[in-house]
Automatic annotation (TrEMBL), chains A, B:
The protein, known as: NADH:ubiquinone reductase (non-electrogenic)
This protein's encoding gene: ndh
Family note: Belongs to the NADH dehydrogenase family.
Domain of life: Bacteria
EC number: 1.6.5.9
Molecular function as annotated in GO: NADH dehydrogenase (quinone) (non-electrogenic) activity
Reactions mediated catalytically: a quinone + NADH + H(+) = a quinol + NAD(+)
Keywords, comma-separated and alphabetical: FAD, Flavoprotein, Membrane, NAD, Oxidoreductase, Transit peptide, Transmembrane, Transmembrane helix
Amino acid sequence: MNIPEISLPRVVILGGGFAGLNLAKNIDTEHYQVVMLDRHNYHTFQPLLYQVATAGLEPDSIAYPLRKTFANKKRFHFRMAEIQEVNEEQKIVRTSIGDLRYDHLVMATGARSNYFGMKNVEANAMPMKSLTQSLDLRSMILQNFEKALYAQDVAEQKRLMTFVIVGGGPTGVELAGALAELKLHVLPTDYPDLDLRDMEIHLIEAAPSLLAAMSKQASQKALKFLEGMGVNLWVDTLVKDYDGKTVTTADREIPAETLIWAAGVMGAPVEGIQAEKIGAGNRIIVDENCQVKDSQDIWAMGDVALMQTEKYNRGLPMLGSVAMQQGSYLAKNFNRLAKGKNLKPFKYKDKGTMATIGRNRAVVDLPFWKFSGTMAWFAWMFVHLMLLVGFRNRVVTFINWAWGYLNYDRSNRLIVRNFRRKKGEVLDKVHF
Amino acid sequence: MNIPEISLPRVVILGGGFAGLNLAKNIDTEHYQVVMLDRHNYHTFQPLLYQVATAGLEPDSIAYPLRKTFANKKRFHFRMAEIQEVNEEQKIVRTSIGDLRYDHLVMATGARSNYFGMKNVEANAMPMKSLTQSLDLRSMILQNFEKALYAQDVAEQKRLMTFVIVGGGPTGVELAGALAELKLHVLPTDYPDLDLRDMEIHLIEAAPSLLAAMSKQASQKALKFLEGMGVNLWVDTLVKDYDGKTVTTADREIPAETLIWAAGVMGAPVEGIQAEKIGAGNRIIVDENCQVKDSQDIWAMGDVALMQTEKYNRGLPMLGSVAMQQGSYLAKNFNRLAKGKNLKPFKYKDKGTMATIGRNRAVVDLPFWKFSGTMAWFAWMFVHLMLLVGFRNRVVTFINWAWGYLNYDRSNRLIVRNFRRKKGEVLDKVHF
């Protein structure tokens, strides 16, 4: 890989997500040469992927070119590459475009879907972890309706129009709400030849309540909102199998062309990290400085890092806000290191969580205040607009939301990918 | 195909381009049942495809869902389908989703790239006739720069950074200008590790001048603009071969990873139309009423129709404005027919032509006034904004243009498709 060799120590960052982005932004390249590797040339704002999948936003407004973010940063190099393996002894990262030497290696490779060993589900469910997967999902949802128009019989038609979402966390709840709004406001006029009463949205959750990580109040409100929007809710329910045609739970079968998997994620560590360094949830065990256990100059942060604290004895949650904070934190520590100062331990500041269900329907848990409804919804929109990278993206997203709000519309109903899964193809490994 | 049989005559429109769209909008469905077929579920605003290819606009802002346009039109049915064949005797269209009976058939299937029989060029060039092709081109351009970073030698690096555009019509000129602006304003900061002086843009045109269909003044101005922006111009030059690595003309070879074909289009008639009804440029011969020669109840309009007039003895030009006018015209004629009135012949009203080369650089030919420069550029933007379908698309496009103007930026530099052409794959036949 053509990276100039200079006299400064080289920090290699694997991944341009929230953690990697914040680290690269804040690290002082007077003291370090920084190389960032990512399989995409853009940063994805994952919390809004579900809006791309449901035609509410265009993909370009929730992604931001990584090269642009760092256009004026000296001694920073970005390379689009697939990461293959880390060799700790040689201090080398092997990638699809060659080897790269490092002085410090920071793993910020995030998470991928966890199917808990259910191969059938993995082979037939749609994940929604990347921009391209969201686009595939958007195409698939719309293609199903096109197909329903010439279905052989009513049962087949119903199956095409049935969407099962597994996982009652924020992603599942938000997706179920967005699908319900498509059903209420958009699809009836788009498909006058179909009876939209045949469209079913099911949300299946293994735990006894939705939004388990949020307050009881938020959880109950989300349930009420979704019920009011016509979503079929199945809590305390485990998915056992999915063959691409029928979803099987302990006590029933739901014929459905689409199963969207939002039930679990696990860390996505790089090959070459020893098994004993990987803990619960397939995450890399780090100390309070984000340093990997028994490793030299290897760091991990964000979803892929397992940092246990007194309060979070199963590790800090896999949230964007943890990743952002760890990215900025590690940058400061690197800057301290360069000046010969001591490392400071990471302290997670819980800023609260929120989820949106539909127009005027959201839930917000702040450390000392919990609320829901219209105000929560506006708070959700404001926070997400501010978190988006790039002014243009904010403006375009704002317009799309304002437009959708005034017109009960979702404008981006384009089928630009012809989604066809090859039999047994595992989509988590497909990046484009 | 599940289309209800009612007592009104059925008009089947093949294609949702400018012509099909305007026909369907203006035809009176009190008198007709209308079915529109298109392989995409959206209308594409083709004049701005080059901006998608050069990262200036997101795909979603130049496309518009066809179902949305006709959401409130009664007795109108849209079906997403691949058209396979017309059977004039049985009055049936065969498609990928079944057969469809028609009373009137309107062919508005547009044009596709014409490689003048050069199989090698067809197998290796990039066309830019659809939204998905533009996205492929955007990905390919950016991927080439990513690859150039780890090229084996300088020659290979240069080849990856060389873009040859064949065809000096509006598409070729606009594309060359947009690439030149990427080179000037965007790529140097995106790729500090590359020497952008190695990026070459070649525009090859067989005729002695650019923009041959426009005035001499416009043609000369465009040439001057492009030269000033560093584009290598080759007029009076024929491309003879392209093997994917080297472009061969009569007197030189240009090593280039990318050849973009904007040199010619031909009609894309449906299978089943008899050979004697197809004239110059592979277009279907129609009379002054858009009726197909010696056919019963078959009509053609837009690029696929060859309508010869006194002034245009080689047929009306393949322009969006002809297609739009013919669409509205044919709707009026159908409405007249329904009321037992006579058909009126089509009269083309030349409203002028324009092309943009770069910021503050455009050329406009109006029937009685020709101008260029900043004012022409603003006129071009205004006209194209107004022609875009959908208010949201206009606003989003306006913001992108305003943003690009103020910041010398092209925001949509995302590689969302992994473009890899299979050996010999002909891209005109790939729709997604």
